[in-house]
Amino acid sequence: MNITKSKLRAKQSITVLTGAGISAESGVPTFRGSDGLWKNFRPEQLATLEAFQANPHLVWEWYDWRRKLIKPIKPNPAHYALVELEAQTEQFTLITQNIDGLHDKAGSQNVLEIHGNIWKVQCTKCQYLSHNSEVPIQILPTCEQCGGLLRPKVVWFGEVLPEKELETAKFAATHCDLMFIIGTSGLVQPAASLGVAGKQAGAYVVEINIEQTPLSNIADETHIGKASDVLTNLLS
Ligand code: OAD
Predict the structure, then answer these.
(1) Where are the domains of the chain?
(2) What letter does residue 140 receive in the DSSP assignment?
(3) The whole model's pTM is what?
């Protein structure tokens, strides 16, 4: 039995940080790497407040395209493995950078979506927040309360993360015994710093990725492999 398995058996408090890699096996494109979204699209034209203000139509078309792509997609064994892990663990927090809602769809309970959710929209005028699963969405979508322009409730480059979620995520990262970092390149802050904070606070850090990342340097164990294979093996 390796160290992770013995720690898992101890049912200590566990915090998990996930990134696009955990949804890759479901068919959701990642951002970086050879097939990543940022290879073909420029974030500054699509994922900033300035881009939205300059051309909301273009930005909404891009989100509508992603919503169409994500809507029929199902969680994969890695998402379900985390649901099972949560059920076996007294204190469990799942921090995700993903906006696809797949952890929720799989049945995870204590999920912090620190980069938002593609199925939520917020009015740019009155800030009214609502759920919207229309595919295709009306472009440009408007607020049912005040008629203002809606934006996707996701965090764009240059924007701050939702304060409450980030604070709760920091607390979870620095108050756990075991921390998993799964399917993230570890290049985007402050998300990546949560792994470092966890390590500094004394967590045993286990990384799962198909390749080494900058976070491999701080991890106690890095398992190179697909998230579903590694998690299924660790939990068996
Ligand atoms: P990235 O696309 O940067 O990284 C995906 C990571 O997943 C890479 O390290 C891959 O090696 C790994 N990976 C791919 N397939 C995998 C698999 N089957 N199992 C395990 N690992 C796998 O995605 P993120 O790190 O999530 O931000 O990107 C962080 C943020 O950058 C995103 O949330 C998004 C993006 O710009 C915003 O939209 C605010």
Answers:
(1) 3-27+74-115+161-235, 29-72+117-154
(2) S
(3) 0.96
